[in-house]
Amino acid sequence: MLWLYLHFPHLLLDHIRRSREDQGALVIVEGSGQKVIQACPEARAQGIRSGMRLKTAISLAPDLGMVRADETRESRILEDQARWLYRYAAHIVLVPPDGLLAEIGSLQKLYGGLPAVWQTVEQGLNERQLNAWIGIGHTPLAARLIARVGKGECTADKGHILRTLSQMPLLAAEFDEKASIRLQRLGLNTLGEVFDLPPNELARRLSPELLAHIQKIQGTRPDPRAPWQPPHSFRQQADFVQEIEHAQGLLFPLQRMLTELEEDLCWRQQDTDSLRLVLRHRHSEPTRLHIRTSGPEHRADNFLNLIRLRLEQHSLQAPVISLMLSVTRFLSREAPSGQDLLGETQDLNEAWHTLISRLQARLGEQALKQLSPQADHRPERAWSASEVMRKTAAPLKPAEDLPRRPLWLLKGPQALTETPVAWFAGPERISGGWWDGHRVHRDYYIAQLNSGQLAWIFRDAREGWFVHGWFG
Amino acid sequence: MSELLNTLMQDARVWQGHRHVQTTQPAEPTGYQVLDNQLGGLGWPRGALSECLLDAPGIGELHLLLPLMQRMCAERKTVFWLNPPHTPYAPAMAREGVDLDQVVLIHTEDEGDFLWTLENCLRSPVTGLVMAWPGRLASREVRRLQLAAEAGCNVCVLFRERRYAEQNSPAALRLELEPGEQQDLKVNVLKRRGSWPGQRCSLAMAQRADLSFRETTRVVRGPWSGSTG
Question: Does domain B26-215 have CATH number 3.40.50.300?
């Protein structure tokens, strides 16, 4: 077994920086708000160091962006990274708050050697604009210790790894405080010197736990780690240092998130048709947007266009402090089917979905309707409107046996105000609805009005005359 | 430059009074031979706007478009109804052989949305026919739609009130529709590309209410006292 450890020295900082357009100085402040714990290169260039008091930092850089450290947020970001790493490695362990462990011994053959694995991971980190220190070790703890001191080397040689570990100072070995003080008092300075001590004496004089820790580093005691399972959903969040007031400003971080969604979907070989956006505001309830496409989709550009349309329609009700994109509905990707030699059918299908999604995004889903006849004698209920769906079934044969009906039906019957000039057909009695309380009892006629319109008129049980449709 | 002029002449974009130019514009037959003849053997122009000007619904205006609708549905192209004044009645359309899966009904709230929707529909390759009932349209907006129709090469029919017949319009085909005596539809060509307008014809539309000839002559006694058929 060979383990790769990724240590993210300032994950939260990287995460926030990559969803910003402008690159001003930025620091992460500890929970109580007194001390700087992480500083970006721009801030460091202005003299800000981690561990500095916040007041000093502000006097050095007056326009400093500040974000308070938040454990839940950090663990969420770490999980995002795990999901990304899961594309490369199957056995992943989360090491909160800032580490990821992956078993890579089994990957060497797949990638063609350890350097290739290393390079793949490094490239992925660059693409995601994340800083991480990589370490490789024959045990999880060895990999972690090496990564955390930044001495990672691309080697699977156990002897070399142990030598690197031996030169490590005791403080870096992550013993508990009491043990490390005792070891120092014994005059030991490096990990190597501890390795040389006889194990029995170590357990007796110090503690069995310390021995277990050392043996886990060396690999003489098993250190089982339960693999992490990726959740079956996609979630990404962008947090902003400065509140975003205009919808345009949201598009930049959205673009990155949607690109990651596209990658994620491609990797899953799935599509989705519904995105959820949550815009958090400082003082008011979060705005929730539900973006629907009319068909399965995975391309970031299409999603971005739809979101842009939606944001144009609904301006922001308050400045946004964070943006969350989540997808929980996944559809299996359809194999291209029913395609002719020139591939035209597929294109048209896609064009249809694009058009309908665009229209729905701007007009709202209720604005588009499809009609269908219903089995009912009452004219008002003999049709229904439903949401637009692409149907690929063959068209039905014309239903010749349906009775003659007008092409226009009025939204409600209108009182007839004039005497028709000509009567053509009727009466046709329609009576029903006693079973559901919407009783209809009418005699229908076809008649021509003065204006030349051919009308479908009826007389109801109370002898009132109404127009119900036009023969358009 | 002369090449450009030639193209304009050939496409009959420039109206020439003394010469009758056979246009080569793509078009869809209306399905009514009489009307096709009046329109120079073509029909509804593709990639251009058509206008139907009428006073009130119920004079056979939908039946004028029904053959085209049926054909478009059979070709699996989508037929859009944009802001129709009444509900298109599904059982009647199913009876006429219109595939309702291809029919999409759209209602827009304001004028901006209307134009945007119409433009988008016109530019899409999935569209076969767009029927739209605009409220007021500025000439500039009709021009914008005309360009969208050209881009998509689709048939677009605008139904407008007859009082707009006096105004000029960039639409390629303008038909004035009036009800006739025998439940027929009188079509008056107000404008068409490449030739003189002013053709008139009458299309039999009595079949739209199953009024066969026998029935029309038969006097159905109206239930109203004193009314005659």
Answer: yes
